[in-house]
Amino acid sequence: MKIRLYLAVGVFILGLALAGQSLLNGQPLVAFSLTFSGIYCSFGVYFGFGEVISNPAFQAAAVLIGAIGLLGWGKDHRIFNTGLQDAHRAAFASFVDMESRSYCKPITIELRKLSEFGLRACAMQDNADQQSATAELAKGIYFGPALTLADSAYASTAESPKDYCALAFKAAFAACPNAFHSLSANNKAVLLKE
């Protein structure tokens, strides 16, 4: 019984640590969900997951934890940031114009490669974000609190998906700011922040 208690405390501490990391990342709803996932899982470890899963109160708690986590995911995911999506489209248009209008003279090999990379990255970034959102949504719907906690622990060690369009924009903007004169100040700020 002592081993179960120690494991339950360890799971609870893991939930709190992941919640703290989410708070530091500015995701309070996700942190709230992870805190309660840690509590849920620690009860599961201590009393046995069979007992916890069959209990109607814990079933309702699992649904509530999942709903809060999905709300936090929806609030924080890039796919729902329409300002960022607009900035991707504007950056794509600027990359198209970069070589054709010769804003940057001379066009170096490095700048040409940045332009080509930026075209591809900005054309595909929103699709990549949609795929990421679909995978995260599926996890949120089908994973219970225990798998959510395990997945969050794994995700905390993995590198988060990058916004390659913003990375290409930053590099190209540093090399030739004139190429992006048609971008609004707001779009530039959104991409530089990302």
Give start-end ranges of low-pLDDT stretches: none
Ends: how far apart? Answer: 48 Å
- Overall radius of gyration: 22 Å
Q: Which structural class best describes the helix and strand composition?
A: mainly alpha
State the helix count.
9
Please count the beta strands (DSSP E, at least 2 residues each): 0
Taken in chain order, the helices and strands follow as: HHHHHHHHH
Mean pLDDT score: 87
Structure description:
The protein is mostly helical and 194 residues long. It has 2 domains: 76 residues, no CATH class; 114 residues, no CATH class. Helix 2 runs antiparallel to helix 4, helix 5 runs antiparallel to helix 6 and helix 5 packs across helix 9. The model has no long low-confidence stretch (mean pLDDT 87).
Concise account of the structure shown:
With 194 residues, the protein is mainly α. It has helices at residues 2-24, 28-47, 49-54, 56-76, 82-100, 109-142, 145-157, 164-175, 185-193. It has two domains: 1-76, no CATH class; 81-194, no CATH class.
List its traits.
single chain, mainly alpha, elongated, 2 domains, 194 residues, 9 helices
Helix and strand arrangement:
Blueprint: H1 2-24, H2 28-47, H3 49-54, H4 56-76, H5 82-100, H6 109-142, H7 145-157, H8 164-175, H9 185-193
